[in-house]
Write a structure and sequence with these properties.
With 552 residues, this protein is of the alpha/beta class. The protein contains 15 helices and 26 strands. The chain binds zinc ion (2 copies). One zinc ion binds next to loops.
């Protein structure tokens, strides 16, 4: 693929056909840069998996070509995979101050902060990374300091939007760099790589200001404590909550580790403003009158271990829900989390709280009209819809055609697809290795499909371990068989069944020994088959059967 004259390749290594683990490779000759290094939360069938990151085999194979990783903003789906990737590839990292501030917290936890090469960018930066020249433009999103990148390549200018919306009244007063985008369009843009998250949503995404009005109204009308929960990274919304508290003479306590960390970092770096006396220690909440207190908490997604969920089931160390509390879930459930959120809301109501869980949210991603604005400003020749599931990419492609991008110039990519640009033309080239790496505890990538299949089996009908000791000399049974089961039946009520199972294993083995069968694999298979058949007949269950044969 790299033979002959160099060409520009754009390769999505994450974030297409899915929401999460965003990562895009830009490659020209001997130079590569990577935009974003995100993580994804596991799907329901990934039992026991903590997080998922992109497969970076191809980057590791080309490690000497990589000139840097550029981060658009500080959300987990853009920076969460970074520690695992820096461990393999310690290349320079670029991003805005807040983004790198959040990255620092992460790298410190992984013991990588001392060796990482972090470089702060701002609106004036122009980074030479091999043949690429990278500058940023600010956009609006649900975390401050969010940017997209303008990437100069030998084939032309590529605009990578990152996550964005156009908010005319942003909380921090920083407008999106619309004039820069228009200037790119006037100059001529080879390709746009664009956020498709809300491609299915008509109209415009409301301004975060509308959420602020709602929050203010809730705090103004509350007679007891107000407990507000949102994404720990939504600094804008946390600012609105702090402002509302100050306006109504209330103190603010913060609970939940990620929220405490993010608020601390944002206050230190100046992305969040609070009067010095506003924020109090969570240990002091019971010393403050209820009508003088706002509590900011994690748990807006009903996460089982989060502060709000623990308060809801009266399992929090410091704070208990009481009648008169107003609890606000200022977010909308991420698909897949609905049942957790619903359960938390029920528990909060049961505990006597007034729960407000609708209408205190605005998306951080632009809707259809904003996506069309982006396309119209940038006027790209080629277009790659990314950051979305397939139907979102497809719908985004249709929007692009509506505003004049040629259908044949749009590439709806899958993970690892190589889109090649040469002399003003583009085509789908080959594929590079790409996919999913699962992380479970300290293990990176050691859990694969076989382990997951076993976990699934175990979770369905449990396990039966059969232990038997055979004589080395004669092959006869010396002890056992002993059957141990977990998650299959309640042993005390199933003695008859297990006795029969025992006898069956014994007779199976005796028969094999008299037939002079002695290879362990045959013995194990025979035990597994006969026992499996018997248990299925008796119970209609198929537990995992693990024969252990010892010799003495
Ligand atoms: Zn984001
Ligand atoms: Zn994102």
């Amino acid at each position: 693929m790299a033979k002959g004259k160099a060409r520009l390749s754009i390769v999505p290594l994450g974030g297409v056909g899915e929401i999460g683990k965003n990562m895009t490779l830009y490659w020209y000759g001997n130079d590569m840069i990577v935009v974003d290094a995100g993580l994804k939360f596991p799907e329901e069938d990934m039992l026991g998996i903590d997080i998922v990151i992109p497969d970076i085999t191809f980057l590791v194979e080309n490690r000497e070509k990589i000139r840097g990783i550029f981060l658009t903003h500080g959300h987990e789906d853009h920076i969460g995979g970074l520690p695992y990737i820096l461990r393999e590839l310690n290349v320079p990292v670029y991003g805005t101050r807040l983004t790198l501030g959040l990255v620092e917290n992460k790298l410190r936890e992984h013991g990588l902060l001392d060796t990482a090469k972090l470089n702060v960018m701002d609106g004036r930066s122009n980074i030479q990374a091999g043949v690429f020249q990278v500058s940023l433009f600010y956009v609006n999103h649900s975390i401050p300091d969010t940017t997209g990148f303008a990437i100069e390549t030998p084939e032309g200018l590529v605009v990578h939007t990152g996550d964005f919306k156009f908010d005319q009244t942003p909380v921090d007063g920083r407008q999106a760099d619309i004039h820069k985008l228009a200037a790119f369009g006037a100059r001529g843009v080879l390709a746009l790589v664009g956020d498709s998250t809300n491609a299915e949503r008509p109209g415009y995404t409301p301004s975060e200001l509308t959420v602020g009005e709602k929050i203010n109204e809730i705090v103004a009308n509350a007679t007891g404590r107000v407990i507000m929960s949102t994404f720990a990274s939504n600094i804008h919304r946390l600012q609105l909550m702090i402002r509302a508290a100050e306006q109504h003479g209330r103190k603010v306590a913060v609970v939940g580790r990620s929220m405490v960390n993010n608020i601390q970092t944002s206050l230190q770096l100046g992305y969040l403003e609070a009067l010095p006396e506003t924020i109090i220690d969570a240990d002091d909440v019971n010393r403050i009158d209820p009508e003088k207190l706002v509590i900011l908490s994690t748990g807006s997604q009903g996460e089982p271990m989060s502060a709000l969920t623990r308060m809801a089931r009266a399992a929090h160390r410091k704070i208990e829900i009481m009648p008169g509390d107003t609890v606000v879930l200022a977010s909308s459930p991420i698909p897949g989390n609905e049942k957790y959120v619903a359960r938390t809301i029920d528990q909060l109501f049961r505990a006597g709280a007034n729960v407000i869980y609708r209408g205190v949210h605005a998306s951080g991603h632009g809707s259809q009209e904003e996506l069309k604005w982006m396309l119209s400003l940038v006027k790209p020749k080629f277009f790659l819809p990314v950051h979305g599931e397939f139907r979102m990419q497809r719908t985004h492609a249709n929007l692009a055609m509506e505003v004049g991008v040629e259908g044949e110039n749009i590439f709806i990519t899958e993970l690892g697809d190589v889109v090649e640009f040469e002399n003003g033309r583009a085509r789908l080239g080959g594929k590079v290795p790409a996919g999913t790496v699962m992380i479970d505890g300290l293990g990176v990538g050691d859990v694969g499909n076989i382990v997951l299949r076993d976990r699934k089996l175990l979770s369905q009908d449990g396990i039966l371990v059969v232990v038997v000791t055979l004589s080395k000399a004669t092959g006869h049974i010396l002890s056992g068989p002993d059957i141990i089961s977990r998650g299959f039946v309640y042993v005390r009520e199933s003695e008859a069944l297990l006795d029969e199972a025992n006898k069956l294993v014994e007779s199976t083995l005796i028969k094999l020994v008299t037939d002079n069968v002695s290879e362990w694999s045959s013995l194990k298979t025979a035990v597994r088959d006969s026992l499996g058949r018997y248990l299925f007949e008796q119970t209609r269950r198929r537990p995992m059967i693990l024969p252990i044969i010892m010799e003495a």
